[in-house]
Amino acid sequence: MLRSPFLILLLLLNQQANGFVPAPRRKNIPSLLSESKSILDNILDKATSKNESTDKLLMDPLVDMTTDADDAPSSWSYAEFAQTYPNVNNIGIATIKTASADLLAQVAIAHTPVSDIDWERAFLFCAFGAVYLGAFQYWYQVNIFKKVFDVDKFTSQSWGDKLKDTEGLKSLFAQTALDLTVLTFIYLPTFYVFKAGVFSGSADPAVWLSSGLDSYTTNFSKDEFDLVRVWAPADLVCFSVPLYLRLPVRHVVSFVWTAYLSFSRGGH
């Protein structure tokens, strides 16, 4: 009597899973049915067990998934990258933000056709964003401020507790005053020196410095008035939020400020 191909295939698969495939032997129908039933029962038991495990994972998100996570291929995570390389991340954000703000000022505010975009000016803001707003600003606002001021205690409190924290408020105003000083005597001169380096047509850094400081002095009154009225209230907010939100909040304000600076001072 001919054997069922399906039953034979089940037997071969079961034997292959155990590491060997012996030559098929003739068996009677009851024997084949018995072995097939055993194999099917084993498959159903494993499937039921797997379904129960899956249901448990779906019902309990806190169940240990270490084994599955280790088996799965690792994927890139921006959050992990930002936490591992905060300075590099901040330089990237500052560069893109500053260049984008300049392009916004040129195209949307000044209504410059895309074909007539001043790419030298765009490069100026791109370089300035990377060097000053990305690298230097991160260094002094995170590393220096943490050493000079007790920023963690104040920023971790609720807004109600912050208003009652006299020492914390003194520190907040001190940080704001220090930042305005840095913006006035480092930020603005650096911007004008960068601008001179891009637009002066000279390869001599002494010319950049001289031309940049001349522009800084000429525009000081107007620039300082605008700087204080924008950054004084902005700093009070930036230095009140938790430390990990400090630079993201600052980047939002800085985007608008940079667009204004590009529109008013970015041209040749």
Task: Characterize this entry briefly.
The chain is mainly α.
Tally of extended strands? 0
Shape: extended
Mean pLDDT: 77
Share in helix:
over 70%
Assess the beta-strand content as a share of residues: under 5%
Low-confidence stretches: 56-67
Secondary-structure-derived class: mainly alpha
Biggest sheet record? none
Rg measurement, Å: 33 Å
Spatial separation of the terminal alpha carbons:
97 Å
Q: Provide a count of the helices.
A: 12
H-E string: HHHHHHHHHHHH
Question: What's the quaternary structure here?
Answer: single chain
Fold blueprint:
Blueprint: H1 5-17, H2 29-59, H3 66-71, H4 78-84, H5 86-109, H6 119-148, H7 151-155, H8 159-164, H9 166-199, H10 205-218, H11 220-238, H12 243-265
Describe the protein's architecture and organization.
With 268 residues, the protein is an all-alpha fold. Helix content is 79%, strand content 0%. The protein contains twelve helices and no strands. It has helices spanning 5-17, 29-59, 66-71, 78-84, 86-109, 119-148, 151-155, 159-164, 166-199, 205-218, 220-238, 243-265. The longest helix has 34 residues, at 166-199. It is extended and about 100 Å long. The termini are far apart. Residues 56-67 have low confidence and may be disordered.
List keywords for this structure.
12 helices; extended; single chain; mainly alpha; about 270 residues
